[in-house]
Amino acid sequence: MNHHTLADAMTDKGNFTVTKLSESNMGYGMLSVFLGLLLEVSTHGPHAVPRTSWRHQELELMEFSEPGISNYSTLLLSNERDALYVGAREAIFELSKKNVTVRNHKVLWQVGETPIAMCTLKGKSKETDCLNYIRVLQVADDQRLYVCGTHAFQPQCDYLTLADFSLEGRAEDGRGKCSFDPSQSFTTIMVDGELYSGTAYNFLGSEPIISRYSPSPYLLRTEYSTSWLNEPSFVFADVIREGENPTDGEDDKIYYFFTEVSVEYEFFGNLLIPRVARVCKGDQGGQRTLQKKWTSFLKAKLVCSMPELNFVFNVVHDVFILKAAHLRDTVIYGVFTSQWGNVGLSAVCAYNMSAVDEVFSKGKYMQKATVEQSHTKWVRYNGVTPSPRPGACINSRMRQQNITSSLHLPDKTLQFVKDHPLLEDPVLPIGNRPRLITKNVNYTQVVVERVRTLDGSIFDVIFTGTDKGVLHKSVVLGEEVHMVEEIQLLKNSEPIKNLVLSSETQSLYAGSDSGVVQSPTAFCRNYQSCDDCILARDPYCAWEPHTARCVKISDTPSQQLRGLIQSLSGDADKCPKAPIVPLKDYQRVSVKPGSSAELPCLVRSNMAQVTWRSNGSLLTEASPFHFIRENGLLIYSVASLDQGLYECWSVEFVAGVGKNFTRLLAGYVLTLEVSQTATTRQSQEITRSVEGKVEADRVLISAFAPPSFTPAVQLTSPPRSSLTPTSGTDQPPEQQVPPKSDAPEAEYLQHGNGTALLFLFLLFFLLFLAAVAYNCYMQYLPAPCLHLRAALLGTHKKSDAARPEYSACEAGLMETPVVSDKIAAKERPAQNSSQNLRALRDTGYETEPECSNGRVPSHTFADESPPPQKPFDVDCDSQSIQFADADEPYC
Ligand SMILES: *[C@@H]1O[C@H](CO)[C@@H](O)[C@H](O)[C@H]1NC(C)=O
Ligand SMILES: *[C@@H]1O[C@H](CO)[C@@H](O)[C@H](O)[C@H]1NC(C)=O
Ligand SMILES: *[C@@H]1O[C@H](CO)[C@@H](O)[C@H](O)[C@H]1NC(C)=O
Ligand SMILES: *[C@@H]1O[C@H](CO)[C@@H](O)[C@H](O)[C@H]1NC(C)=O
Ligand SMILES: *[C@@H]1O[C@H](CO)[C@@H](O)[C@H](O)[C@H]1NC(C)=O
Ligand SMILES: *[C@@H]1O[C@H](CO)[C@@H](O)[C@H](O)[C@H]1NC(C)=O
């Protein structure tokens, strides 16, 4: 790692120039890890994938919104009452905490004519900006809430009486407590009746301030200086109490989290830096120096980076402090992205509260130094620091020196902290790397709950909200973090603006522009089998073997807890052994010969691999007639040989136990439709004949719920066009061919003269096509034909041309039959009767012009043999240059 220079930053937009900071005046330590190869990270970096994905409609979520009201972005949970207070645009609601669809109270707070007029005069929009966005909701006392709104860019605050849910109407100046601009980020917290906030103090939003408002006559605030705050974007603030018996008489502290423009790094453009700052609750300001200003304001850099990839997440979007009885168990969780949002990565970093405390109480200061006259740099301060330590809270030792309040602090200390608010030592994340990295999301919110499992172990569960209304739930399992599920929490794809968690109701509440959503913290009941319940590795859930249900542990009476099965490592072998699914429970599917069959198989786990078996042997991608798709198996042109047993298996590898868990998800008996009785007989025969072949190890009946699998069988052959592949599963479509086996053929022809006529017509049509194609190939026909040919080739090249038939077909266009046969032989080493039949079906009825082109008249090109060193050689000379396919490497 390069300790004293900034690595050159590179994005896919190009290279940024980063000034190298010389070692002599910069002691950057760990922190010079900087912007790395973003591209490399986004493609090769580790990232979490949610095991299960739930769509909005799949879950029963409770939602609240009212017509005409939007921007439900402020949420406050009441500890004493059954209430969730919601601040929206020009309205405040009291909802039931147990069920947010129940509205208990509502009060409107609109802006008068005059403020609106003044606001529009200043160039703000009357419809959006010049309204009252309720952005502060805090508990003032037992009977009242303190409420602030942007009030048409003239923030105002008022008290809300809870008894009758009305505003007192004694509006006070909200400057410094609430933002002017409804879209500007800011933060507030009420501590012992005093409001702490981080916001802008002016209309333009250019004067940042961290302040405290109290009933006492004056407010305490930050110095207006870029070394204190430099274009900050506040995201969070919270108080850390010292507890009943503070060891050295320390004070309670308020921590602020924000992203600001760095002063200490020189960079091409503004380099953003995530910060943690703190002030002491007992701060009274200084006597002469720092009068009515914080004497305890210090800030440090938060590091959230992947050192091995030299990648830094430098924008913090939200923070949650998971508080514990002891400081060392208190953990700060933050969600970060990179300043260059196009990388599409989000990270969660966790910080040890005692490490943060250590930085503030022992860290080195930075100081501004002037170099080359006008230019200033921030360097480590190596001189003697005054005593008491600048920025420290008043503690027992200071009291012994007769310093009982910040008003008694010596000027030297105060002057020093005024000039040196920035600490050099950074706050490093636990484990020196992000807890979680997720691709293609922008996290906006985070909350964390500490959960006790059945065996008494404790795990942190991280809930992260995205800008697309999705919630991710991850559990920290030591070094590893497992993403349990993702939930489409909001109906629309819009940002989650606020997220709060109540352990009491075991619910999460999300606020967005369009409403409020309440979601349980776990969806245990949705896991249908013991395997699913265990493999989910959800600390909230356990399997109840008697009722065969996945249950939420906290909902289970304590006397029933003993029988429950839980394994956070995901050891599904703990599940009771399920009996083997009898073949009679396999679903019967019968289709007409030549039509296609779709056998559904719903795989809930994004971490499982699906395999299909027919008659007990593995189906591979190589088979041209079987498509293993997301929701099942598609069999094109079912012939008599395709009849048999089909099983959908899921294989899930669990790293925690180092095992593969194999489960049967669906089973089918596929038969050709002959007649009603014949089908039944046939299906019985097949069942009997394959019974022995089925590999049924670890088959779990509970995993296999036949009623839920409804076959979507296309009984009639779809029109030609619908057979043409449209998705990634590209495949030369084929015609319905009378298979060579006897019974189905008879069946097929029984459909009557119409079919026979159609068949004849098709035959002639194909012959005609072959003739056209041949002439086209020989360039007897003019340009349009060649256009078509080039276009067809071009399209096919784009698809994944992994299908052997496909390449054989394409190759057949240019090559000799000898080569073609060789390929065929390579692709099908075991030439059995089935494959011969396939080959027959394959070649006889190709309708794609370029295929018939290659195949039908191929024998006439025998003399155009390619040079032997190029197996797939193309006859470049015979094509005019303008139609030479650009993708063709041999031309
Ligand atoms: C308020 O909500 C609307 C959508 O309803 C959104 O367009 C707008 O940006 C929101 N305003 C703020 C300040 O969040
Ligand atoms: C935080 O650090 C302290 C001291 O190094 C350690 O005892 C504690 O276990 C750490 N806590 C966490 C959550 O990592
Ligand atoms: C603190 O003040 C007391 C009384 O005012 C005085 O007796 C004592 O010497 C002072 N101690 C120090 C360290 O200044
Ligand atoms: C994340 O946010 C950035 C900036 O707003 C945006 O450009 C990007 O498309 C977003 N990415 C995703 C995956 O939503
Ligand atoms: C499965 O076995 C049956 C009976 O032996 C056979 O008719 C059928 O062709 C086989 N199907 C497949 C796909 O191998
Ligand atoms: C688990 O299965 C995968 C493929 O399904 C295989 O590659 C892997 O080796 C297996 N691992 C173990 C430990 O059996």
Automatic annotation (TrEMBL):
GO terms for cellular component: extracellular space; plasma membrane. Keywords: Developmental protein, Differentiation, Disulfide bond, Glycoprotein, Immunoglobulin domain, Membrane, Neurogenesis, Phosphoprotein, Signal, Transmembrane, Transmembrane helix. It comes from Hippocampus comes (Tiger tail seahorse). It is a single-pass type I membrane protein. Residues 44-521 form the Sema domain. Residues 716-729 have a biased composition (Low complexity). Residues 710-744, 825-878 are annotated as: Disordered. InterPro entries: Ig-like_dom (IPR007110), Ig-like_dom_sf (IPR036179), Ig-like_fold (IPR013783), Ig_I-set (IPR013098), Ig_sub (IPR003599), Plexin_repeat (IPR002165), PSI (IPR016201), Semap_dom (IPR001627). GO terms for molecular function: chemorepellent activity; semaphorin receptor binding. This is Semaphorin 4D. The lineage of its organism: Eukaryota, Metazoa, Chordata, Craniata, Vertebrata. GO terms for biological process: axon guidance; negative regulation of transcription by RNA polymerase II; neural crest cell migration; ossification involved in bone maturation; positive regulation of cell migration; semaphorin-plexin signaling pathway. Signal peptide: none annotated. PROSITE patterns: IG_LIKE, SEMA. It holds the Pfam family PSI. It is found in: Membrane. Gene3D superfamilies: Immunoglobulins, ligand-binding face of the semaphorins, domain 2, YVTN repeat-like/Quinoprotein amine dehydrogenase. The chain crosses the membrane at residues 756-777. Residues 576-648 form the Ig-like domain. Belongs to the semaphorin family. The keyword Glycoprotein applies.
